[in-house]
User: What shape does this take?
Amino acid sequence: MDSSELRLTLKKMIVEECDKDMEPTDIQDNEQLIGGRLDLDSLDALQISMWVQKYYGIRIENGPAARSALRSVDSLATLIHKELTAKSAEADPA
Amino acid sequence: MAPTLKILATGSYSQAVIEEQGLPELKELVKESTSANVRRVTRFVQLALVGAGRCSRNRSLPANTAVYLSSCRGDAEVTATLLDDLIRRRELPSPVTFVNSVSNAACFHVASALGLHERSNFITNRFDPLAAALKTAWIDFQCGEVETALVGSVDACSLPMRDHRVRVEVTEQTTVGEASHWLLLTGAADPRPGVAHVTALENFASLERLREWLSERNFRKDSVLAPGQHFTVCDAEELCAGTGMQTFDYRASLPHYDSQTGAAIEAFLEEREERAMLHINSDPAGRYSVILIERS
Amino acid sequence: MSSVFLGAGLHTALGADVDSCVAALRGPLPQASTVSCKFAGAADEIPYFLLANVSADDPRSRMDDILFGVIEQALQAANLSASQRGDLALFLGSSSFDIASEERRYRQAFSDHNTAIPLAQAGMGNLAEHVRSRLGIRGEDYTFNTACTSSANALWYASKLIDAKVIEHALIVGVEFINDTTTYGFQGLQLLSPTAMRPFDERRNGLVLGESCSAMVIGKSEKGEGFRLRGGANLCDTYSMSTTREDGSVVSEVISQAMSNAGLTPGDIHAIKCHGTATWSGDAAEAEGLLKTFEQLPPCTTLKPFIGHTLGACGLAELILFCGAIERGFLPGTPGFVAEEARSGFTLNQHPRRIEPGNFMLNYFGFGGNSTSLVVSNLPEGVA
Assistant: This one.
């Protein structure tokens, strides 16, 4: 999945999981997710973390790790990309 | 002890559900009746918001308005979803679903949408949920702890209707519905005009004790007796015999749902001319609960 | 003359009656049992404070054995006559009721047919009705379902209805039995500690769930001796469905209201039982609220490290434990948790300490913002 496709998937997921009344494309790549204009809270953060766990098998621990990973769509996409790359390297060592 | 609570307003939603048409969309109704942007809520919470919002009639309620919610079956849909997550889908329930499974989630959303900052409570009883909530609210007024209160009952449907019918214990022939009935209450000393007063909230352990209470009060033809869900029209007529009171069968036109006491109060105020309504409910053990509504 | 606590029954991880549970509060912190909790991403095993000395396996008969045993303890301790028993009003508080039985039924039904119906019985008042009919109680009954404040609210309303002479005696019941819905729900919220529960401590990493079943009879007493509920308050915190307002303002408001409802000021409170869920933000908000309200904080203690978080049942179970300890002359302590006074000035009582009769505060905070503070007293009536 290329990075813009991943970002769009994440935005759609955020709108769906957090029940936001807005278009996914209205979310900016680098805009603050929790407590910003989107007004997402800790329950939204948990909801997003669980989705990431379910679809990518990546566990985001509650606390500082979650705060940093869920800063923006960009940071979340970067984390997922990094973890998936690491996983595929593990599965298929060069 | 004679309670006196003033009913400032009532607000309701009730709708028969036809399975082929699906459940009516409530999102717009929530917006209309509360002017709040609400998200991450269940159908049960939406129904609470529509009823409470209509009761507040879009006027701003004092922040110290307390919320008392009751329901016979609660938010069965959200609990069924949790069970399906665990047993059918074998996955962890979503955080929002789990948090919404506490009954007072609906109180939270009502208080939040209407800008309230007071106590809230979810109280119920197997046979007359609203009567239990009213008594709880009344004791808070009696103790001087609460000045204004929203008291309501909510019944939600969920699909598939087959499952819902099993939960509410009715056959396929019964028309089922969902409802949200609310009262905005204040103390008797409040100068604002009210539509009626709640002047008795009584529980009796037997028919004999109920009869004693009735005989001390001398209800006449200026009052109606509304039989509650677990009290038959026939028994009601027998109680009325010789008093001149008529029975008021408010339930005849309602679809089936479990907490219809609020519908009685609203129907009496809208459809009848009499001065007072005596709502009497009972349970299979032969206990009775009585709510007396007198027009202002 | 206000209503007094006439008799109590209790079953927790510490023991199967009030005496053994309270005696265990003098000892070291108990080790929780371990239960399996297996789902993608979740830990394999988690600590859980299961009820002591229980054998039955089927959730229904297990619940009935414990529930009616505990109620009988309370009824006997209260020494009610047969007619007083029949006239009791019932106040039941729980967050999970008998969901474990429904899980068992649905799991079986689903393995037989995939068209099985989840939650085939859905009456919120069913458990109270079960208790009422089994015991032949003919008074009114109320079921409270306000998350972790459920049984605290049940006790508060029972007490008010007695003081207003609406009812004579009340039986208050709190139940929380192990069930998957709750366990996995909390796991999904990432609120469970994989190790142990350390309320307010810098090292805290979540809560440990527990089971409890409690019952209490209250009513007027000619002698007017013993503990009574002196006041209370409840507020719906609309800040968040799942966490207390972080600045502690709602905590401060509800505990201030409870004291004023009891006709007391902060200086009159001899000790506090905190809610203390060992969650990061919940404890921070609670400590902040206490510090905001008390210029001189009285000794504070938490009971969840002994019995786990028993959710809707914790209101009554912790109150019975707490009052039982005070009656026996001691305030329980949790050695090692916030031993050093934190920068904030908040600390917990470390070891059982001698305590005289007085006024005591018990705090409870639940999902959906439901916040309850109760003030109990075992001073003679008329004494501040």
Remarks:
- Residues 64 and 175 of chain B are 39 Å apart (CA to CA).
- Residues 43-56 of chain B form the longest helix (14 residues).
- DSSP finds ten helices and ten strands in chain B.
- Chain B has a mean pLDDT of 95.
